[in-house]
Design goal:
Helix content is 27%, strand content 20%. By secondary structure, the chain is of the alpha/beta class. The chain is globular and about 50 Å long.
């Protein structure tokens, strides 16, 4: 079984309708407190706030509401249904033709392999947009990025993070400066690195066996999925970046508020990455208590 998981607070969007129409996949959407009471899917599974509370009230309370971490319940639901492959999507990402067909998770894949002496790799800078960077890449390292050591290698990825044409997943500082509209060159993909790298939860394929190491940490602003990515890789999860398979027609955002939400990353990402290399469980140093509790309750589902 293959499952697409998402969260929403809006009526079904064009993106959700297209994902819901994919017959080879089961769509599971976790609602939020602001989701309309009459929210419906054509054929997918909608998890209302009440159903999420019923599933695990303590975890629900620990995660809180109005955050992407609500899709934790869609992930757990898919796991309970026996999904072998999970795709995490956002409701403002329109799937392009062929979405979900060029799958690399669990398969030996030949990639452009970048080696760097930095503790972290930025995949966006390796594309035809070298002036941009991925949300969650430490800003202190931007002038030190170097893509000169590129070879070909074969890896078996646990995660496939596909890119996004249109408005890419860059941080607020980058978006304020460049306001890009991107069409990523498919020739730049697939790619991987010898170091950890940021990936998001908006167009990302995940092997079921990696799920216990992947948790969207609440109460860390817009680092929920970025710190999930760094932690999963510290625990041995391997990621490959695939060509753009969606067009992001980004929901309305206040860039100043986005920047405020990204501040935990601006302040801590570099130290976090270094500490995770020494001990993955050092993640708890950077989490508020309620997030630590949510992480503990989540892991109980895989005990």
């Amino acid at each position: 079984m293959k499952a697409i998981v998402s969260t929403t607070i809006n009526p079904p969007t064009e993106a959700i309708r297209r994902f819901d129409a994919m017959r080879d996949w089961t769509l599971i959407v976790a609602g939020d407190k602001k989701t309309p009471a009459d929210y419906r899917l054509a054929r997918g599974i909608y998890l209302s706030p009440a159903e999420q509370d019923k599933y695990d009230r303590r975890l629900s309370d620990a995660i809180g509401w109005n955050c992407i971490a609500r899709r934790t319940f869609a992930l757990l639901w898919a796991h309970d249904m026996g999904a072998e492959l999970l795709a995490l999507v956002d409701d403002d990402n329109i799937p392009l033709p062929g979405w979900g067909e060029d799958l690399m998770v669990g398969r030996e894949t030949e990639v452009d392999f970048y080696e760097t002496d930095l503790p972290v790799f930025d995949p966006v800078g390796a594309t035809n947009y070298p002036h941009l960077w991925h949300r969650g890449f430490p800003l202190q390292l931007l002038p030190k990025r170097d893509y000169s050591r590129k070879t070909r290698a074969k890896i078996v990825p646990d995660v496939q993070a596909d890119f996004w044409n249109g408005d890419p997943d860059i941080d607020a500082v980058c978006r304020m400066e460049h306001a890009p509209e991107c069409t990523f060159d498919p020739a730049c993909f697939p790619m991987a690195s010898n170091q950890v790298s940021p990936f998001n939860s908006q167009n990302t394929f995940l092997a079921a066996h990696a799920l216990p190491q992947y948790f969207l940490f609440p109460f860390v602003g817009r680092m929920e999925d970025i710190w999930a990515a760094y932690y999963a890789q510290a625990r041995g999860t391997r990621v490959v970046y695939g060509k753009a398979s969606v067009y992001q027609s980004r929901n309305a955002h206040d860039l100043v508020r986005d920047m405020q939400g990204e501040y935990p990353g601006y302040e801590h990402n570099l130290d976090l990455i270094r500490h995770l290399k020494e001990d993955p469980e050092s993640i708890v140093r950077y989490l508020p208590g309620r997030s630590v509790e949510a992480f503990r309750l989540y892991r109980k589902h895989f005990a």
